[in-house]
Design goal:
About 65% of the residues lie in helices and about 0% in strands. The protein has helices spanning about 5-10, 15-25, 40-45, 50-65, 75-85, 90-95, 105-110, 120-140, 145-155, 160-175, 180-190, 195-200, 200-205, 215-240, 245-250, 260-270, 275-290, and strands at about 105, 255. A two-stranded parallel ribbon has the order 1-2. The longest helix has 26 residues, at about 215-240.
């Protein structure tokens, strides 16, 4: 990966289907997420610094850290990108008409795509959870099996890290799977075999990053991680009175669809958004900037 973190942040869109979907979650995270784009702008917002020379020094150090092969930042970025799935590009290209006003769920979408089976959706959900953990460990320079540290840090998630977890809860959990999705996912994961996982292309790509020796230990760790984050998800839903209808009603301000097409909304968001990559880039930028400002 040859890009600098500066390039990645500069390339983030101000408006896109992903951005609209995340704004649609504002109803349960009011004012929490600011779509920070542009690396110089991000440095100024994160540090409060405005001196051009000092801002440039921070940028240079952040780029050095990101490109250091002994650090875990690039691997975290690769994980965020990989878990967003390769099939996303197909739907995104079909719907990449100029983004402005509402984004319609076009008829051609329904002709070519259907919601994925619940089991596949639950596997993808659990893989995003374990990627969140592993990326957290890479970014913070701690062992990849530091589940306790990760679960403790969840209570301190803010900004783009929090909206990513809310997206995970709503876009990959609540909307496609319903209000009991955490319980259903735990039950389903306990009943899966190793062959079920090996058939998943995302798992095959990231399995070497998942802690554990051998497939069985890796699967045990995935289950353990999801059980660990389940309490956070359930508590967030209860505390913020999150319902499918509340999310859907707010998203209809940005994405145009009728209530009889709700079964397709999850598939639409799955294929046309890359919120893990988008917010993951913002998380990496923030952590790199926070470290760089103390090292220059």
């Amino acid at each position: 990966m040859s890009e600098t973190i500066e390039t990645l942040v500069n390339d983030l869109p101000i408006n896109s289907i992903t951005v609209y979907a995340l704004r649609g979650l504002d109803v349960v995270t009011p004012g929490e997420w600011n779509n920070l784009v542009g690396f110089e702008n991000t440095i100024k917002v994160v540090t409060g610094e405005t001196d051009p020379e000092f801002v440039q020094q921070i940028a240079d150090r952040a780029n050095e850290l990101y490109n250091d092969p002994n650090e875990g930042y690039q691997r975290a970025m690769w994980l965020y990108r990989t878990v967003d799935k390769t099939d996303m590009a197909l739907g995104a290209a079909a719907l990449a008409n100029k983004v402005g006003g509402k984004i319609p769920l076009l008829g051609s979408f329904f002709d070519r795509f259907t919601p994925k089976a619940d089991t596949a959706q639950m596997i993808d959900l659990s893989l995003k959870v374990v990627v969140e953990l592993v990326a957290f460990c890479y970014i913070n320079g701690i062992p990849g099996d530091s589940l306790t540290d990760f679960l403790k840090a969840l209570g301190e998630y803010t900004d783009e890290s929090l909206i990513r977890l809310v997206g995970l809860t709503c876009i990959d959990g609540l909307i496609p799977l319903g209000p009991d999705f955490t319980q259903l996912t735990v039950s389903t994961l306990n009943g899966l075999s190793s062959s079920d996982w090996l058939e998943n292309s995302t798992f095959s790509k990231i399995k070497d990053d998942i802690p554990g020796d051998g497939i069985d230990n890796k699967l045990t760790y995935i289950n353990k991680t999801f059980v660990g984050i389940r309490d956070w998800m359930d508590n967030y839903i209860d505390t913020n009175e999150v319902t499918t209808q509340k999310i859907v009603n707010n998203m209809q301000s940005y994405i145009e669809f009728s209530d009889d097409k709700l079964d397709y909304l999850g598939a639409f968001l799955d294929i046309t958004t890359n919120y893990y990559t988008h917010t993951g880039t913002q998380t990496l930028a923030r952590r790199l900037i926070e470290r760089a400002v103390n090292e220059v």
